[in-house]
Amino acid sequence: MELVWEKIVRTENIVVSPRPVWKCKMCDMYGKRLSCPPFVPSWRETKEWVANYDNVLVFKFFIDMDNFEKEKREIIEFLLDKEKALFKEYPFVHALFPGSCNLCLKCPVEKGKECLKPTLVRPSVDALGIEITSIIHLDFSENALYSLIFLE
């Protein structure tokens, strides 16, 4: 996992729509992880939520596809640490995961059991209906993951 860059973007530029959520419905993790629909707020609720923030930190990470799950877990841990550090300055700081949660090696929720880390799970960017392409240009030739931390 390599953090390529982080930058602050105005939230007024973020588009929230049902389109990313429909992509989620085609994913194997749909309905299986707490960071995914239908366990997260709707895109309409997200639209209202985003409107209450002025700025968001956007992160780009390069990832080794041969170690995808491990490196994605490192990204999630980085985001949670960053969120915790920012809390002192921004009491409503909120990180979003780059895709489904994979904090645990084996997700108990997938087997109908309780989450072992419910206070650490954050929704994924797509699950909330946030169109990441509204604030950054995606280069699909890169092995990159993007994430957000809302600041306020």
The Cα radius of gyration reads 15 Å
Overall mean pLDDT:
96
Q: What structural category arises from helix and sheet content?
A: alpha+beta
Q: Span between N and C termini?
A: 27 Å
Largest sheet, described in full? 4 strands, antiparallel
How many β-strands, per DSSP?
6
Brief summary of the model shown:
The protein has 152 residues and is of the alpha+beta class. The protein contains three helices and six strands.
Task: Give a verbal description of the structure.
It is a single chain. This protein has 152 residues and is of the alpha+beta class. The protein has one domain (2-151). 22% of the residues lie in helices and 21% in strands. The chain contains three helices and six strands; from the N terminus they run ββααβαβββ. It has helices spanning 19-24, 43-50, 68-86, and strands at 2-10, 15-16, 55-62, 94-96, 130-131, 144-151. It has a four-stranded antiparallel β-sheet with strand order 1-3-6-4, with helices on one face. It has a two-stranded antiparallel sheet with strand order 2-5. The chain starts with a strand and ends with a strand. The model has no long low-confidence stretch (mean pLDDT 96).
Topology:
Layout: E1 2-10, E2 15-16, H1 19-24, H2 43-50, E3 55-62, H3 68-86, E4 94-96, E5 130-131, E6 144-151
Antiparallel strand pairs: 1-3, 2-5, 3-6, 4-6
What tags apply to this protein structure?
4-stranded antiparallel β-sheet, 3 helices, 152 residues, alpha+beta, two-stranded antiparallel ribbon
